[in-house]
């Protein structure tokens, strides 16, 4: 499989499983997050993470910012890529 960032798969398109090598420490983090999120598979964690990354990227392209705000202190942190 070649990676072409210019091509994309549209919503609802069916693509079979793809094997991706993940370092052990990253895999353990993914498994822990899957437990915390109640995800049935680590792949669901990847899907959520990629969706968030895409949202942040689109906001950046539109000149917008996505912030995390601590309601107790008012401190804000930019989510950025």
> Biggest β-sheet: count, sense, barrel?
2 strands, antiparallel
Q: What class, by secondary structure content?
A: mainly alpha
Main-sheet strand order equals: 1-2
Helix content bin = 40-55%
Approximate shape: extended
| Cα-based radius of gyration, to the nearest Å | 16 Å
Order of helices and strands: HHEE
How much of the sequence lies in strands comes to 5-15%
Number of strands: 2
User: So how many helices?
Assistant: 2
**pLDDT < 50 stretches:** none
Note the gap between the termini: 26 Å
The overall pLDDT, averaged over residues, is: 84
For this entry, give a set of tags.
single chain, 81 residues, mainly alpha, two-stranded antiparallel sheet, 2 helices, 42% helix, extended
Write up what this structure looks like.
The chain is mainly alpha-helical and 81 residues long. It has a domain at 24-79. It is built from two helices and two strands; from the N terminus they run H-H-E-E. Helix 1 packs across helix 2 (42-61). The radius of gyration is 16 Å and the shape is extended. The model has no long low-confidence stretch (mean pLDDT 84).
């Amino acid at each position: 499989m070649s990676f072409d960032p210019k091509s994309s798969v549209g919503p609802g398109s069916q693509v079979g499983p793809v094997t991706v090598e993940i370092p052990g420490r990253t895999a353990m983090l993914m498994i822990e997050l899957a437990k915390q999120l109640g995800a049935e598979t680590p792949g669901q964690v990847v899907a959520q993470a990629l969706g968030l990354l895409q949202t942040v990227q689109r906001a950046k392209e539109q000149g917008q910012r996505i912030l995390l705000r601590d309601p107790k202190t008012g401190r804000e942190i930019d989510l950025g890529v």
